[in-house]
Amino acid sequence: MKTVVVFSGAGLSAESGVPTFRDSNCLWENHNVEDVASPEGWAQDKQLVLDFYEARFNGVAQCEPNAAHKAIAKLQDQFNVVNITQNIDDLLERAGCNNVHHIHGALNRRKCEKHKGSVVLDGDMNYQCDYVTLQTEPVKLGDSCPKCGGQMRPDVVWFGEVVDMSYEMIAELVKEVKYNDGVFITVGTSAQVYPAAHLIPFFAQVKNKYIIDKSPKKIGDYTLLTGNAGEEMPKLVEQLLKGTE
Known about the structure:
2 domains, 6-stranded parallel sheet, SIR2/SIRT2 'Small Domain', 3-stranded antiparallel sheet, Rossmann fold
């Protein structure tokens, strides 16, 4: 079975109405986004950060997968589909996608504030807790880690933290896609900034590669599909599935 790697950004979920919680000045209820999405903000006011993510959690819960999410899930009928997404919503999973890697974390997961991948601010270099679990309700102040007793926090990557993306994994995917005549698709992201800007060159050697965006930039010999994800992804999926008949 051929492999399809789909790298997605905010444009994939935009048509589902996923709220950004930012106004034109990059503020959330008069707070800088860094105040509610950074280790420093967490250290200063945990309740404010938890209020911010409760609003995001509840906002996403009211959204539904759109045509693009469903089309990606449909690809699984004929392909081994690997999703690498910058989005922290769970719309791909709710659409039926089985293999989703959230490089910026996910709103439907929580972890201990002393997780080994968290940034340490108080001088304690022994943050080694590995507790992560799914959540059906937003994290509350006082929710403690059952493993070490630390305060739970949303399992999302904040400003100043490292994205969860292994370049060894990416290199293996490139080889897999290249040598079995697979497909690489970038959807809903300009692909001009990190980490997308690094992925595009990685997959340049793949024969079948596409960029779906409202205003895609010409990059090498990528096939550009201009338009909304909800319009262009279903058309591309039908084309790919038809090619396997």
